Amino acid sequence: MHVYEEVDQPNENFEDETEPTEIEGGNKRPRVDPQFDVNIGREMVAKMVVMHELPLSFVKYFGFRDLMKYCKPLIGPLSKDLLKKEIFKLYDVERTNTMKMMSNNESKIAISVDFVTPHNEKSRYMAVTAHFVDNLWALQRRIMRFIHVPFPYTAEMICDELVELLIDWNLDRKLSALTIDSCSINDAMMSMLIAKFTVDSKVMGGRFFHLQCCAQILDLIMKDEMAVIEKDIEKIRDSISFMISTTESVENFENTARRLNVAYTKKLILDSKSMWNSTYLMLSTALEYKDVFLHLKMCDGQCECLPTESEWKMAKAICEHLEVFNELKEMFLETKYMTADLFLLMISDIRLSINKWLKSSDDDIKCRATNMMAKSETYWEVVYGVKAMDVVLDPRYKMRTIELMCLEIYGDDAKDHIKRVKFLNVRLFLGWKHDEGP
After folding, report:
1. Does 383 score more than 80 pLDDT?
2. Do 266 and 283 reside in the same domain of the chain?
3. For a FRET experiment, which of 87, 317, 331, 401 has its CA 20 to 30 Å from that of 421?
């Protein structure tokens, strides 16, 4: 809550307030500071409001107005309308500079589209972000626009908005790829969008123009997995809930761990069913205290929901499966710029893990692995080709790394996949050579 409440003024522009003056020869005149520029001062206030996501009414707070009068009286009173104009000026300047940077940039530009639905609203907003490597080989990212998408939204509506934006920014012939969540509306929209542009304007004829978000595919895979394992981890969740229900039970659990010489380095946590990685953290922590749970089961008859040995065994298998996915999730969250080598190594590890689970003697694990493979197959075929090309162009890895990966993942079928990566690299080179000219 703000210390200074917003002040309701009869005239929002505060025209009744007098300009700061100083007395000279009995006459009043505005106090002049040759080193102070009113326009720059107002621009800095607008930047502050944007940077810190302050409400426009911030300029009407008593505290802010008193501060402005004391520090720089000549900045004058600011109203919400005047602040709004200053913010739009900032937007126009930044937009012009960004458009100029992209226009002068020699590389292709990738676009990502994210949808945001405000709480308790039927409409949503589409955030369009450009990603590119500038002429100094620095990775750049610029939010181009937030677009209001009214309900009911259709594939045609989203496509028209994107086409208008791309043409307005002169990017219709510089696009390399577009990343967007996978759903029926977005898939239909991508088909329409691809048809809007000529084949020559797309890298490799648009073969890899539509890329799905890996984080979303990961969440979709794990959402199905969570639905399957729900019964297997129910007793562990109930046991943890009982152990942390009161202060006395928490202390009893800690004391039992110390008596058994089990290092108590992590607190028991409950997961959120909507966040699969929290389920992994819950299980991994509970498994560290398995002996404590077993001891309490023998000594304390109050808790009747403790897992059996077979349920602990299943929990351990589930946790091992979730671990590799959790590592990729943490990489998405912690790595500001995901490089191709890190990304490809991680998704290759996931592919190898699924291959291993498909050979499991446990029918439940094999069934889950089959579902995971089916869910990830389409994404894998696209992203492996794209990222494999990136790795080949990296002088630290080159083609030898791809050959070893293919041998490990595909076994006897590796030759065909190695040929495919080589073919894609040749196509990519010829496409860039054609764009650059002789």
Report:
1. no
2. yes
3. 331
